[in-house]
Amino acid sequence: MSRNFLKTVIFVIILSLFVSSLLAGCGKTKKTISNGIKYPSNGEVYPMETDATLSVWGMSSNSSSTSLESSPFGKKWQELTGVTVEFQQPMAGTNGSSEGLSLLIASGDLPDIIISNLYNQPGGIKKFADDGVIIRLNEVMDKYAPNLVKYLNENKDIDKMVKSDDGSYYMFPFIRGDEILSVSSGPVIRKDLLDEGGLAVPETIDEWYVALKYFKERGADAPLSYDFASWEKLGVFLGAYGVKADFYVVDGKVKYGYLEPQMKDALSNLKKWYDEGLLDKNFIKIGDLDSKILTSEACASVLFAGSGLGKYLSAMREKDPKFNLVPTKFPVLNKGDKPMFGTKEFRYVPNNNGFITTACQNVELAARFLDFGYSEKGHMLFNFGIEGESYVMEDGYPRYTELITKNPEGLSMSNVMVKYMRASMSGPFVQDKRYIEQYYTFEQQKDALKLWSETDTLKYNIPMVSFDEEQSQQLSSIMNNVKTYVDETVFKFIMGIEPIENYDKFVSQLKALGIEKAIEIYQKAVENYQNR
């Protein structure tokens, strides 16, 4: 045995003992992973010990007085994760829009994380991946996002919505934790005025006609005032006839409401209301709805429970204690029928989802940072804010403090909430229904959650489908022309400028513009979704 060989053996033995001693000295409370982040070995990964900084674009604070970076929420998010964040706010009015994202991408200076809605952008989420803007997350999530993976494994219906047709994951999603959170808007009416006339809250189209006629007779200039173009995509009044102004699915087959024969009857009814002065003459573009409702010029509308129903009830609480704006069920033709359509949405929402970009040099850190929203600590921060400041625990229930409910600076509940949490907005986390139980302070708002939920709309809504780039381009080309033609013609039908007897010609022109091809594209997308 040579002397050199003996030296080599001795060196290896000494080196092994040295490494073993180092490992023994590390203890059991911490372990180090590849990028230098340290976290406890018990699985609770926050706060992470790292000197790294992440840049995050999007997810604006929605507050003119507080940026996300300087808000209590933004500061606490960094403190609890141990990550320093460079928050990049989009230009005013561009967050989540094609314009804002186009400007960001065109700049060539991508952040580490984008928090926005890429689902509704041309080409959809996959195009952003194909174009080298965002990364596929399957392996990343498996390694570094245990909280989100656990939630998706336990909620297969949400998992199906979140992934693409080929099983790819691209985002850290915003998820509503309970179905009660899936409804936030619907029809409302002045019950105090109905009581004066001895009328019940209407349920059928015929009962609505009687109620609106009564409001007109007592002096209301615009008994029903609502944004037709926005709300009828959800089938608020058209839905009573089994149609809506958009695509939907019946028994697996995609339909487009304006092609269906019932739509002619639905529009004829609205024309009758318009002719008799029951529908706001400015229904194409509603003016000052606040003034109309608060002065009883309008006695029925379609509103959000928070920013609409709650706002008006608050405004009139002292001025006119008898003022009673209440939610109604979605209208039907026959008493006792269950509304086919409504405003209920799926529990997965594409708003303010988190995406890791191809520019990110520390994917693990970005993934763990975004995964925080699905952890226990993250869940409480995103939904309730800072314990002892914006909420306290009472018998296991996170109760908002008076900082939120009766803000000493006079801020509305919604305005102060955006400083401390994201529950009333969206982001990469699971929304908690205990937020809405406290946010809605009026009984009318709580009743609204129940009444507006009583529809079959999720049975008929187009699911969270995806399109490839070619399909997206085809749809965009077709639907741009269709929308322009529909907007012009439907308004004319309701106002009597175009005879409703010409409805068949209207349908023929829609087909000439390619609506049947659009239905075919949606049909294929729905089938792909069902096969996920």
What does this 3D model show about the protein?
- By secondary structure, this protein is α+β, with helices and mostly antiparallel strands.
- It has two domains: 53-180 and 346-431, D-Maltodextrin-Binding Protein, domain 2, CATH 3.40.190; 202-289 and 330-343 and 456-530, D-Maltodextrin-Binding Protein, domain 2 (3-Layer(aba) Sandwich).
- Helix content is 44%, strand content 13%.
- The protein has 23 helices and 15 strands.
- The chain has a six-stranded mixed sheet with strand order 4-3-5-12-6-15. Strands 10-7-11 form a three-stranded antiparallel sheet.
- The longest helix is centred in the last third of the chain and has 27 residues, at 469-495.
- It is globular.
- 40% of the residues are buried.
- The model is unreliable at 1-43 and 92-96 (pLDDT under 50).
